[in-house]
Amino acid sequence: MIPILNFGLVGTLIMWQIVVFIVPFRFHAGDYSTNQNIPADEIREIVKVPWTTLMFIDYEEKYFEETDMEMLAPVFTEELKKLDGKRVEVEGFVIPLDEMGTAIALSANPYASCFFCGQASPASVMSIYFKDQKRKYEIDEYLYFEGELKLNYDDPLEFYYILKEAKEVEEY
């Protein structure tokens, strides 16, 4: 029997990790080329990462003290490990995490079929932490973001992927 946890988003994340549903989804794939539209004095490699790459992971059961239970933890591929700490661009559907629309997640799927509803993998969503937030975001806006990708190995209360120092960018 699965215990019912009633403590909002954290409870939802915990329960979702207990029972993982992975189903087919539609996505807009990016590519791995560097951004050619950056002025020469600002050139740095930015990897465009498609959701297919982010979702190609395995899972293992792991005990977490924070939740006092075993949960599924990500086992990242070598390709993903090479992207940890690198500047990346990702695209997806905005999922606001607060009423103000200032704390957001980015999902490979629209809200109606995102992982919150049990229709996708926990690897199909990431936290977005802005460098400087410029505006309020609406549910299911399809947008592009750039930032530093962090892989989450150990925090069961956070998504598997975190985009730090993020900023919204034009379509790549």
- What portion of residues is helical? 10-25%
User: Major sheet: size, sense and barrel closure?
Assistant: 5 strands, mixed, barrel
Distance from first to last alpha carbon: 46 Å
CATH class: Mainly Beta
Shape: globular
* Rg, alpha carbons: 16 Å
Outline the low-pLDDT stretches: 1-36
The secondary-structure class comes to alpha+beta
User: What is the mean pLDDT?
Assistant: 78
> Per CATH, which architecture?
Beta Barrel
Q: Please give the number of β-strands.
A: 8
Task: Kindly estimate the percentage of residues that lie in beta strands according to DSSP.
Answer: 25-35%
Spell out the helices and strands N to C. Answer: HEHEEHEEEEE
CATH topology descriptor: OB fold (Dihydrolipoamide Acetyltransferase, E2P)
* Count of structural domains: 1
Strand order of the largest sheet: 4-5-6-8-7
Please, how many helices?
3
Please outline the helices and strands:
Layout: H1 8-18, E1 47-48, H2 51-55, E2 58-64, E3 69-75, H3 78-83, E4 87-96, E5 104-107, E6 125-130, E7 142-151, E8 161-169
Parallel strand pairs: 1-4, 6-8
Antiparallel strand pairs: 2-3, 4-5, 4-7, 5-6, 7-8
Name its key features.
172 residues; alpha+beta; OB fold (Dihydrolipoamide Acetyltransferase, E2P); 5-stranded mixed beta barrel; two-stranded antiparallel sheet; globular; disordered N terminus
Can you describe this structure?
The chain has helices at residues 8-18, 51-55, 78-83, and strands at 47-48, 58-64, 69-75, 87-96, 104-107, 125-130, 142-151, 161-169. Helices cover 13% and strands 32% of the residues. The chain has three helices and eight strands. The protein has a single domain, classed as Beta Barrel (OB fold (Dihydrolipoamide Acetyltransferase, E2P)), CATH 2.40.50. The chain has 172 residues and is of the alpha+beta class. It has a five-stranded mixed barrel. Strands 2-3 form a two-stranded antiparallel ribbon.
